[in-house]
């Protein structure tokens, strides 16, 4: 009996592997275009749109993104707040609820919803578009290798390492859509990162209470000392310790983030300082509400989207990237000169501190499968073509009405370099509340990428008890 099961299991595994391999490959001639005069190393179009950038409607050519030569001389050490390299740029267009119709084809539906919901205070200040996305040569090299080796399974990716798995979208429309999402989930964000930051749920009145924590992430998938075969279905380890308020201080969370979460669900543990106990956290996936977000963020809202894509049908809305206004180069949102009390106003983060630019984005639609459960019936993702970072998400309820809007305020951490976000904000248009994550303006440091990577034993559940005390 055991032998028979083994034979059947081997046959099924082999069949799936063959199917995945057929579906996943792109010609070597296509992969060779990456990093040339036509295609960036991460798969975007090098050319601009031919329009004047001084009008706010021009997209320039990509010329390498932010490099060490572009780092402001006032930036002196790892973890320092970033001087804004574009502080002298001027606002070229201001989009309000009154004039949004002029730009309707370049605005995500969720952004239109924010303009309608807060007509007196929410606006888009549009600046010159600057294509700052950049990454180390190691990431470019591995991305090019991934183009011909990475394979997409039902709920995961195999043989991807070090960079984006699918820099050249290929296959059916649905496959291309899921590949774009996986490019976001598995994108380069450094190797080991430490930050102290706060998150808040801002009420309709503008009231909020900070929860401050120290977060540490080891992106095993991007460790240049390793190889694809060393991944063991793991993207990263995440460790977070609450520092304030006093009633929550000492609490901790540990996450082992799986690639294919149907094969191995995300593992998460929580440490309760009062009870001094470490417990396995169940069901930290899909639409599980996140307590610190006061119900405004689900587990798979985090980082704009994460986890298994298996509950949705996926569709690429346009066969090519389209031009959209998205948040970009948001250095001011990290500025220590700005206090939370000034930035966090009723309804949204103060518009005067936001920077929006015109960029090309992939638009991906996810529709809930029949028989599956999730609070979002439909989601639309706007993915920056250059970095594969999701910039905006429209989220619809079961009646088909726009309900929530997620926004990632993109910037380049030029000391690494990597394109990530200065701040993630999750809006509930109905309740007129929002959750802001990664606030660090009032902290002495921001993300620090310079520390040595700990041994994997550092991210063992037992470490929660030791470090939470």
Give a structural overview.
By secondary structure, the protein is α+β, with helices and mostly antiparallel strands. The protein has one domain (137-468): outer membrane lipoprotein receptor (LolB), chain A, CATH 2.50.20.10. Helices cover 16% and strands 28% of the residues. It has helices at 2-24, 28-31, 109-117, 137-149, 173-185, 340-343, 462-468, and strands at residues 93-95, 124-126, 151-152, 157-158, 192-202, 211-218, 234-244, 252-258, 267-272, 277-280, 312-316, 322-327, 344-345, 348-349, 356-368, 378-384, 390-396, 402-413, 418-428, 433-439. Strands 5, 6, 7, 8, 9, 10, 11, 12, 15, 16, 17, 18, 19 and 20 form a 14-stranded antiparallel β-sheet that branches. The chain has a two-stranded antiparallel sheet with strand order 1-2. Strands 3-4 form a two-stranded antiparallel sheet. Strand 17 (390-396) and strand 18 form a beta hairpin. Mean pLDDT is 92; it is low at 1-22.
- How much of the sequence lies in strands comes to 25-35%
pLDDT under 50 segments (min length 5)?
1-22
Structural class: alpha+beta
CATH superfamily: Lipoprotein localisation LolA/LolB/LppX
Overall domain count: 1
Helix percent band: 10-25%
* N-C termini distance: 51 Å
CATH topology: outer membrane lipoprotein receptor (LolB), chain A
Q: What is the CATH architecture annotation?
A: Clam
Q: What's the number of helices?
A: 7
Mean pLDDT, all residues = 92
- In N-to-C order, the SSE pattern is HHEHEHEEHEEEEEEEEHEEEEEEEEH
Rg measurement, Å: 22 Å
In the CATH scheme, the class would be Mainly Beta
What best-fitting shape do the alpha-carbon axes yield?
Answer: globular
Report the biggest beta sheet as strand number plus sense, adding barrel if it closes. 14 strands, antiparallel
Secondary structure tally: strands = 20
